[in-house]
């Protein structure tokens, strides 16, 4: 198998989310909890909340607590706090806020059985209920102050292999009272599943898993990477190489489109590829591929990289920048064409095709050679080209 390497700009991301090292993959609940680094003040506040709730329910010991909790199917044996294992490559990164929310608003009727299986090394590995298990660890250690952590927890055992557990986790990991599994996490799990298959010399789950795995490695080797950041965090952390458009990454089109994107990035646009505009050049490369029935040539990519390297101010200026122009054009288009039919407000995230049209118009506006933009506009493209006269 080809030896793969991670480009420096993507290395920190790889080490945090994607590294697969069997020697350091498994951690205990205690190790997992301590890694959260809750302050002593936060711990004291959570202890007080849980104690007040349990006292109101007349629950004064761990055994009494267990009587209030559901015990699932235990065909493969029982599960105790000190023997439960978390595999970092099988579980999402712990959401500290979710653990805190469970403990500050603890409700016995919301507790579900922790799901686990015996892995190939006979470890008892949790595949669902990581946050619940961490909350139970907290109650045992900090609320009841137990010294011996070999205590039973509500659990359900499964006769799974590691790939089967991963598939179950992806299928059942979101629901009422659970932390939602993001699209990024699904991609991460698919990557891990394929890494597991390669390292253990077993067949991969599917050809689609192999394709996504290959695509992600293609990006990592060239300094681009998907990111797990959501919402406003996407705008606060804009590091070089961050590519946050999961739909584009999962696109079933030719990998030549992504390869063009990577080549353009490496040629030097002199600016970070960040969430809120990653969609635009990607959609542009797809348009050009569909138009030419081929990827862009090296010369065309060099010309595009040279032009975009001189457009940093044009892209980023908060008053006259390209993104401001794109939004203005889209809002005008929405007001005049879409709203009269739908009565719905503009939805920026779904306007990739129109933003690409604007990009073509902007290339023409800036004097790019005709090979870099589409000359024969559809009605939308004609509208966009005309709209540039007013901005």
Concise synopsis of the structure shown:
Helices cover 54% and strands 5% of the residues. The protein has 391 residues and is mainly alpha-helical.
Describe this entry's structure for a reader.
With 391 residues, the protein is mainly alpha-helical. It folds into two domains: 20-178, no CATH class; 257-391, no CATH class. It is 54% helix and 5% strand. It is built from 19 helices and five strands. Strands 1-2-4-3-5 form a five-stranded mixed beta sheet. It starts with 7 loop residues before the first helix and ends with a helix.
- What does the main sheet amount to? 5 strands, mixed
- Strands ordered across the widest β-sheet: 1-2-4-3-5
Number of discrete domains: 2
Mean pLDDT figure: 81
Rough shape? elongated
Strand content: 5-15%
Global Rg: 26 Å
Main attributes?
elongated, 19 helices, mainly alpha, 391 residues, five-stranded mixed β-sheet, 54% helix, 5 strands
Secondary structure topology:
Layout: H1 8-18, H2 22-25, E1 26-28, H3 29-34, H4 40-56, H5 62-67, E2 84-87, H6 96-104, E3 114-118, E4 124-128, H7 130-143, E5 155-158, H8 162-172, H9 183-199, H10 207-221, H11 233-236, H12 246-249, H13 255-267, H14 275-292, H15 298-309, H16 312-316, H17 322-342, H18 352-365, H19 379-387
Parallel strand pairs: 2-4, 3-5
Antiparallel strand pairs: 1-2, 3-4
Helix pairs in contact: 4-7, 6-7, 9-10, 13-14, 13-15, 14-18, 17-18, 18-19
């Amino acid at each position: 198998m080809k030896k793969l390497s991670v480009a420096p700009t993507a290395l920190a991301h790889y080490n945090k989310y994607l590294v697969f090292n069997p020697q350091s993959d498994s951690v205990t609940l205690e190790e997992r909890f301590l890694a959260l680094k809750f302050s002593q003040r936060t711990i004291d506040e959570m202890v007080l909340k849980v104690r007040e709730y349990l006292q109101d329910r007349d629950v004064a010991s761990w055994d009494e607590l267990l009587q209030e909790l559901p015990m699932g199917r235990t065909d493969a044996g029982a599960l105790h706090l000190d023997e439960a294992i978390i595999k970092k490559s099988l579980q999402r990164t712990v959401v500290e806020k979710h653990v805190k929310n469970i403990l500050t608003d603890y409700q016995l009727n919301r507790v579900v059985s922790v799901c686990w299986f015996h892995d190939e090394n006979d470890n008892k590995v949790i595949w669902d209920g990581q946050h619940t298990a961490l909350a139970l660890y907290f109650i045992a250690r900090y609320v009841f102050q137990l010294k011996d952590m070999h205590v039973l927890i509500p659990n359900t055992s499964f006769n799974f292999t590691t790939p089967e557990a991963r598939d179950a986790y992806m299928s059942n990991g979101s629901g009422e009272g659970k932390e939602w599994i993001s699209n990024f996490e699904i991609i991460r799990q698919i990557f891990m599943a394929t890494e597991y298959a390669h390292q253990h010399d077993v067949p991969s789950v599917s050809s689609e898993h192999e394709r996504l795995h290959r695509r992600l490695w293609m990006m990592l080797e060239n300094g681009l990477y998907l990111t797990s950041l959501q919402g406003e965090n996407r705008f606060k952390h804009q590091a070089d190489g961050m590519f946050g458009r999961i739909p584009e990454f999962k696109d079933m089109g030719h990998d030549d489109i992504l390869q063009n994107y990577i080549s353009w990035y490496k040629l030097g646009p002199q600016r970070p590829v960040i969430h809120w505009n990653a969609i635009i050049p990607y959609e542009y490369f797809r348009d050009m591929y569909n138009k030419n029935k081929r990827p862009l040539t090296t010369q065309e990519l060099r010309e595009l990289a040279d032009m975009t390297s001189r457009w940093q101010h044009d892209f980023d200026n908060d008053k006259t920048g390209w993104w401001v122009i794109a939004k203005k054009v889209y809002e005008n288009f929405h007001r005049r064409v879409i709203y009269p039919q739908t009565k719905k407000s503009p939805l920026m995230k779904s306007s990739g095709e129109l933003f690409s049209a604007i990009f073509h118009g902007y290339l023409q506006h800036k004097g790019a050679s005709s090979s870099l933009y589409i000359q024969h506009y559809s009605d939308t493209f004609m509208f966009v080209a005309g709209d540039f006269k007013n901005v």
